[in-house]
Hints:
This protein is an alpha+beta fold. Helices cover 25% and strands 34% of the residues. The chain is built from 5 helices and 13 strands. The protein has helices at residues 13-21, 42-48, 52-55, 113-116, 185-219; strands at residues 2-7, 24-30, 36-41, 59-63, 66-77, 84-91, 97-107, 121-124, 128-134, 142-145, 154-156, 167-168, 177-182. The strands form 3 sheets. The chain has a 6-stranded mixed β-barrel with strand order 1-3-2-6-5-4. A 4-stranded mixed sheet has the order 10-7-9-12, with no helix packed on it. Strands 8-13-11 form a 3-stranded antiparallel sheet, with no helix packed on it.
Amino acid sequence: MKFVAFERTQQGTGASRRLRNTGKVPGIVYGGGDPRTVELDHNALFHALKKEAFHSSVLEMELAGKTQKVLLRDFQMHPWKQQVLHVDFQRVDDTTRLRLKVPLHYSGEENAPAVKTDKCLVSHVANEVEIECLATQLPEFIAVDLSQLVKGQSLHVSDIVAPTGVRVVRHGTLNPVIVAVTTPKAEEEETAAAAEGAAGAAPAAGAAAAPAAAAPAAAKGKAPAPAPAAKDDKKKK
């Protein structure tokens, strides 16, 4: 991608505020030489930041009639306004080695046995991964094929197949999950209900046997006392 930047002579908080009021964004370019302060058109930069490639690919910046390769390193947004406050770029060349995060693009999920056969849910736990490579080998994204996922399976960072010359960065022995396959909630509830039914069957059978055992025991008790004879309410004359 290519964009245009202009040299910025005035610096400081007041100068940056005045620059923003005119629809410009202050910025800086560093690396591979002396840092240079620049300014960019706000609207053009704002829309460029919405594009994924602007964050994870080598850019061509036209400055003072010359084109140089740069990489977006940082930008600051207003706390509640849709306004870019500042932007940082790093100069790169063919020998520059980079370490940054690139997005993951998932595909083939709808053809996976876990989805087609077992009706499982596939969760994308991570949407980006940190990599290390030369600037000339920087991928815009890394593709991850999910067409072979099966029920109960998870994909980790170590399962990512990176392009040639690109190394996926892992911190120590950590191997985070990037994709998880989970059983649908309805199926889990049915399994839990079946387990509860099996567990409650044994106590219910014992409770039903108790009254049957109590009947013979009642028969062995004393016979009920005869009912008292009715009294004659009539008085003898």
